[in-house]
Amino acid sequence: MRDRAIQLAKEIGFDVCVPMKKEALVFREDVRAMCRADRCQSYGKTWSCPPACGTLDEIRARTSGFGDGILVETVGVMEDEFDYESVMDAAARHKERFLRLSECLRKEHAGVFPMGAGKCTLCEHCTYPTAPCRFPDKMTPSMEAAGLLVSDVCRICGAPYYHGKNTTTFIGCILF
Ligand code: SF4
Questions:
Q1: Residue ID of nearest Cα to ligand 1 atom 8
Q2: Is 99 in the pocket of ligand 1 (CB under 6 A)?
Q3: Reduced to 3 states, what is the DSSP secondary structure of residue 4?
Q4: What does the buried/exposed string (b/e) look like for 29-46 if buried means 16 or more CB atoms within 10 Å of the residue's CB?
């Protein structure tokens, strides 16, 4: 399945795609503490973010049966460090690619677990906390929400975390 996933990721256009190493799956309380500090202003605002996405023990239990996976990256190039438009373009490109890849793999195999970049943005207004998630089969937590330190995951898997001056990188992984 890994070869198929890598082939699909390349076809979809990801700039980097490498096998995920199981030892990179370290779900850390200090990363969760950064979520609680709410620097991204998403804590407690969607079903995809803490606390709604589950405790670290629940995420460990959900992922314990997965033996393989891939890590994918979308790299954006900015004109300068203030080029926010290119950052947003790259973020949207990554979200679209990641959703496509997750959907393709979910159609081909029952058990896949995607973890994306940033909060779920499938709906303009998330239903959290007043009504159930509209798309529980499409929604994914971010890697950070799952407690993964993304720079460490990249290092362990042999993928670049930084692509040089005036670049921005969005990263996700899919376990299977
Ligand atoms: S799919 Fe919609 S309701 Fe569910 S987490 Fe995403 S934004 Fe919220």
A1: 126
A2: no
A3: helix
A4: eebbeebeeeeeebbeeb
Structure-block tokens of residue 55: 């405790």
What CA–CA distances, in Å, run from 141 to 49, 59, 67, 80?
6, 10, 19, 30
Residue with tokens 């709906």: 123
Task: Give the tens place of pLDDT for each residue, 102-139.
Answer: 999 999 888 899 999 999 999 999 999 999 999 998 99
Test site for ligand 1: of 49, 121, 125, 135, most ligand atoms within 8 A of the Cβ:
135
Tell me the C-alpha to C-alpha distance, in Å, between residue 110 and each of 18, 106, 114. Answer: 22, 6, 12
Task: Please say whether the beta carbons of 154 and 160 come within 8 A.
Answer: yes
Report if pTM > 0.70. Answer: yes
Contact 146, 120 (CB under 8 A): no
Cα(155) to centroid of ligand 1, in Å? 31
Structure tokens given for 131:
């009504």
Distance, CA of 76 to CA of 169 (rounded, Å): 6
